[in-house]
Amino acid sequence: MFPKKIALLILFLLISNISTSQTLNSNKTFLYQGRVEKLQNDEVILIGTASSVSFNFTGTKCSISLQSVDSYEHHNYVSLVLDGKYLGKIRVEKGAVQSFPIQVTSNKKEHHLEIYKNTEAQSGNILFAGTTAKLTSISFKKKKKIEFIGDSITCGAASDGSDVPCDQGEYLDHHNSYYAYGPRISRAIGVDYLMSCVSGIGMYRNWNDENKDEAIMPDVYQNLYLTKDASKPKYDFAFQPDIISIALGTNDFSGGDGKKERLPFNSEKYVSNYINFIKMLYKHNPNVQIVITNSPMVNDDRSVVFEDCLNQVKKAFDTDKAHKPIQIFKFKPMKPKGCIGHPDVEDHKVLAAEYGPFLKKLLNEK
To answer: Per-residue confidence at 57, pLDDT binned at 50, 70, 90?
Structure first.
């Protein structure tokens, strides 16, 4: 027999509606964004990095109900933003649905709460099970859209040791998707965004795997949950971004942990997989502008090889008149200050400052 909460979750999944675009519930009181799965009764599973639910309410009292619902029952995190002010992270323990009170201090007649999944898809999922708030209607303006595809850097992984120091806790304790470069850029230039990123993942091999035991991005991207689990729903490509930014290669160029077998970097495999991945994206997003980037973490001789690979990918589409020419963006080398060699939240601010004007210019040219 399944435990009651697992049985209920399975029932929810069977009758759920998939959404990977910016959508409202039927009563227009909740706004869902990112890789999410909508359930009945206005509940939603936040799956991907920075996926979110937001709503407007009146009064000074508000609590939200959340639950970590991943298969191995792990804790998780969300970030809260109230009336445009970042409140910080809250930890959602494993187990039953938990209620979290939201402190309202302003005298505004109407308030706006945004709940962002702080961790990534592979850290498990978060069920938003409702709120006690007195809801009012919510709407959204149609904006231009950017999708950010990448690895742990894109996810904002290991970037925040403010609550749990880097030398303590677990990997997911140091995530902060809200301050990752993609969401930072999107807020700064006024666009909607979708995050499709997985720590350790690569284009043809992962950080410590030669695509033998672990799935690479081309294997998981078309699954809503960014896994190879065939029981999970497919990604519906409803978002239809104006720009897709792809930042994959840091892990392909990685030397791994030095213990597991690591073969020399294979440029041919990397380029071939990249080209096929872009062809798949074009099939579902025919009008998109694609930008491919290097990595601020890949330096020295590897950066020369990396740049050559990106040029080969771009060149493969030079005669493709059906789509916009692929653009290449190059981050400056960086010495990261975050946990286990990753950029911290201030480093992400630097990355956003570099990349944001480039993306804004492309959008203005559309």
So the answer is: very high
For residue 18, give the nearest of 59, 48, 50 by alpha carbon.
48
Q: Hey, what are 217's tokens? A: 């991005």
User: 306-333, pLDDT tens digit by residue?
Assistant: 999 999 999 999 999 999 999 999 999 9
In contact, 73 and 94? CB cutoff 8 Å? yes
CA 227-160-166 angle, 5° bins: 95
Backbone φ and ψ for 154, nearest 5 degrees, come out as -60, -35
- Specify the DSSP element, H or E, that contains 364: helix 345-365
Taking only the tens place, the pLDDT of each residue in 283-310 is 999 999 999 999 999 999 999 999 999 9
Name the 3-class secondary structure at 50.
coil
The residue to which tokens 């990106």 are assigned: 310
The phi, psi pair for 212, rounded to 5°, reads -105, -50
Spatial neighbors of 117 by CB under 8 A, at least 6 apart, are: 34, 46, 47, 48, 49, 50, 51, 52, 76, 77, 78, 126, 177
Among 222, 235, 181, which Cα is nearest to 36's?
A: 235
pLDDT for the residue numbered 16 = 43
Residue type, 168: Q
Nearest alpha-carbon partner for 34 in 110, 99, 125, 159: 125
Which residue type sits at 298? V
78 and 117 in contact (C-beta within 8 Å)? yes
CB 225 within 8 A of CB 124: no
Alpha carbon 263 to its chain's center:
29
**Tokens, residue 178:** 């809200």
Instruction: Write the secondary structure of 145-176 as one string of H (helix), E (strand) and C (coil).
Output: EEEEEECHHHHCCCCCCCCCCCCCCCHHHHCC
Distance CA 86, CA 135 (A): 21
Q: Is the dihedral of CA 339, 176, 351, 349 positive or negative?
A: negative
Helical residues (DSSP H) of 207-299, grouped into ranges: 217-220, 267-284
pLDDT of residue 13: 38
Residue in 245, 278, 195 with CA at minimum distance from that of residue 359: 245
